[in-house]
Amino acid sequence: MKKMFLFYSSFIGISLLICSFSLNKFPEENNSGIIPVFENTFKEVFQIFNENCIECHSGDDAPNGLHLTSYSEVMNGSENGKVIIPGDPDGSELVKRIKGLSKPKMPLGREKLNDEKINIIISWIEAGAKDADEIIVQEEIIQIKKDPEKDIILFSDVNSIFNKHCIKCHMENGKMGTAPEGFILTSYNDIFRGDERIRIVPGNPSASELLRRIKGKSLPQMPFDGPPYLNSEEIKLVEAWIMQGAKDENGNEAPSITGRKIRLQGILTDKWKLDDIDFEINSSTRIDKKIKTGEQVEVRGIIGTNNEIIVERIKND
After folding, report:
1. φ and ψ at residue 225, rounded to 5 degrees
2. Which of 161, 172, 246, 259 would bridge with 254, disulfide CB 3.0–4.6 Å?
3. Residues 6 or more apart whose Cβ sits within 8 Å of residue 241
């Protein structure tokens, strides 16, 4: 009985030793550092593009002409050249952007892709960036999903519109170098930061310069390189977001803009009214003598405690 016990004890000990050796050896043979040993497919890569990239990188105004809506477009690259070099992830500009090694980091205005997603893309490129069945983005994937007349609209709902049409210029070191008029749109906090004049008046779309620019009521109409400009559905979504208080992505109210400076352009339709915007005139308001109703004017002022516009000056535009 004792011999039998010793036999089984020895057998179990040897088995555990073999298992331990195998478990230690397996990762060593298969571990290649950052990149997994298995090959990922374009279908898996495309799913990442679909979830994180194509809201900007699709359509006529894709940044630098880079479309990520099909295999052939991805491999064609951008106006600046190829973004994928098969077999060379480290030399592929797309990888440099999603890792933050080249600027601007991608996806623009979003959190960095997690390591798992980055590794899927790297694995696919290292294996040769092989083709798969051609995958085309269906129109419903990129259409606006919320109804501005029924749904609560948050910053996360309009941020994709800003990313698609505006951020290429309105960011640090953007397409035009310095952001035009210093207005940066890369995050919610940038829009409402306190060192710039305000372009969005929560609850009052008509008095919001951002909306007036994209509608063409203030000039130049935006985006600056349009047409194409924002379509009617995109404009309605931005307008609803402002009307509902310009809430952040978590539904929090916009910060107070009391005392912030504002500048608006438009037609003086009445004394004193700019298009359909009411504003307050007082004894300290400067009004150019030659101004007449029906003319294009510029109104400068500050925001009052109830988000009313207190005019400091009205002048010919």
Report:
1. -90, 15
2. 246
3. 148, 153, 154, 155, 157, 158, 247
β 261-270/277-278 pair status: unpaired
Strand pairing partners for 183?
none
Q: How many residues does the chain have?
A: 317
Distance CA 14, CA 18 (A): 6
Q: What is the pTM of this model?
A: 0.63
Dist. CA 21–CA 119, nearest whole Å: 28
SS3 83: coil
Q: Is 81 left (phi over 0), alpha (psi -120 to 50) or beta?
A: left
HSE at residue 267, side-chain half, CA atoms within 13 A, is 6
DSSP strand pairing (296-303 vs 261-270)? antiparallel
Q: Using one digit for the tens of pLDDT, what is the confidence trace for 34-93?
A: 444 456 888 888 888 888 888 788 877 788 889 888 888 899 999 989 999 999 999 999
What is the 8-class DSSP label of residue 175? Answer: T
Residue-range domain boundaries for the chain: 42-139, 155-243, 261-316
How far apart are alpha carbons 83 and 244 in whole angstroms?
A: 40
Three-class SS state of 265? strand
Residue of 179, 171, 160 lying closest to 237 (CA atoms): 160
Crossing angle for the helix pair 232-243 and 155-165, to the nearest 10 degrees: 140
Per-residue tokens: 186: 């890369």
Q: Are strands 309-316 and 286-287 parallel, antiparallel or unpaired?
A: parallel
